[in-house]
Amino acid sequence: MLRSTSLPMSLLIGIAPVIAVLAVCLLLAHALFDHGTQLTIDFASGEGLQAGKTRVRYRSVEVGELEALHLSRDRSHVTAVVQLMSNAARLAACGTRFWVARPRFDGSAISGIETLRSAPYIDVDVDTTGPAPARCRQFIGLETPPVVSADQRGSRFTLRGASLGSLQAGSPVYFHRIAVGQILGYTLPKDGQAVDVEVFVNAPFDRYVTASTRWWHASGIDVQLDSRGFQLDLQPLEAMLRGGVQFDTPTAAPPQTVRKNTAFTLADNEADALRSTSGLSAPVQMRFRESLRGLAVGAPVDFHGVEIGNVTHIDVDSEAAHGGFDMIVSLNLYPFRLGRRYRAALGDGEGPGGRTLLRDLIAQGMRGQVRMGSVLTGQRYIALDFFPKAPPVHFDAASASVELPTVPNTIEELQDTLADIVTKLDRVPYAEIGRNVDASLQGANALLKTLNDETVPQTQSTLAFAQTSFAAARATLETDSPLQSDVREATAQLRRTLASVNALADYLQRHPESIVRGKPTEPSTLSKP
Known about the structure:
The protein has helices at residues 2-34, 237-242, 270-275, 340-346, 352-363, 410-426, 430-476, 482-510, 514-517, 523-526; strands at 37-43, 55-58, 61-71, 78-84, 97-101, 104-106, 109-111, 121-125, 138-140, 154-161, 172-175, 178-187, 195-202, 214-217, 221-226, 229-234, 245-248, 263-267, 282-288, 300-303, 306-319, 324-333, 366-372, 380-386, 402-404. The chain has 529 residues and is an alpha/beta fold.
């Protein structure tokens, strides 16, 4: 029994070293397989990076560590040696983006605030939506964090504009004033004549971008002083701080889908962007002989309140016919804004139908006229209107360039009329008239002096005598005056005399014989003794 039990013990003692070696091998193998993936990242600067302390994070989870930091041979950058954990080996896919997360203050944008209380770290962004890409071991780090993540759904587009304006990486993209995307960056083409801006529109808003979509700058405050007056358009606060772009699609435009990375034109403002939706333009010219102060490039062309074009160029041309200068205004007319009938007749403005229609309209009195658009700004615009009393003009429909006739505005006519009046007034001999008036005034002064020295005293004595006479007459005509008493007594006598004459006439009428015989003696008188 004792011998049977001693054999296994000796066997175990002999196998123990082998088991220990196998365990060590397993531990070494596990350590080797768990060591992960090593890769290198080139950064412009090693600011904030420390070997053995700087961590690598993906979605705020630690996935690796910075093992070493070396200066490149040409001393143009630094190379960071990063060791990823075994469960983060997929982060070494080609196309993965690395950058150093640190506090950044870029005008209106602030990022990396969390690193103020902790050390900077290396952040990672990788596309996890598609199939597994190939593995890479060398990467070039970003200087700034990417605007959008690699797995964010949406579409990229390129906008070409004349100026970058206030745009920067991270500036918002608006659709109906809703933030639907961001500005990714910008580049200069080889010719340097424009700026290419790359934008990203988030899904599902990218389906609203069609072939007819129009893009324009949506700055924080859009102030316009033109012929329409003072216009103020306020954008959201973020656009005020960082700028932005906005897009819209005309409702009448057919919904044509576009591919990603399609290029569009970036207009300066909404008016310029939507103006290009009016179809093909018809270039025409107008000749004016008046001052065009206040008329600027971009001024509207108005037809009965409808904007059908805009001014594209203003030039000066010498005219030998009247020995002066003419102002040549080039403008674009959009026949599509005149309605379906005019669109069918005008076409692009260059065909025979369009020129025939223009000739008929000119024969009816259609002319161009510069008018005041805003008293506040002093800006002017060009109006197309009918003037039946305008003199007829010859329209050359076969000419290479279309030139529409014009009429002066009412202000210019008033100025010409006033100038003519002033010219006539200048011809009046004011000096001679003044001398004659002065001589007349001297004669009048002499006459007034004569009247004052001679006529006035005599007139005063005459007036005094007349007053005396009037006073005497008034005294004579008073009721208690002697003249009035005598007149009343004489009147009484006349009345008595008239009564006696009436009695005598009555008696003679009864006794006419008394004229011969006399009056008979009364009987009473004859009978007396």
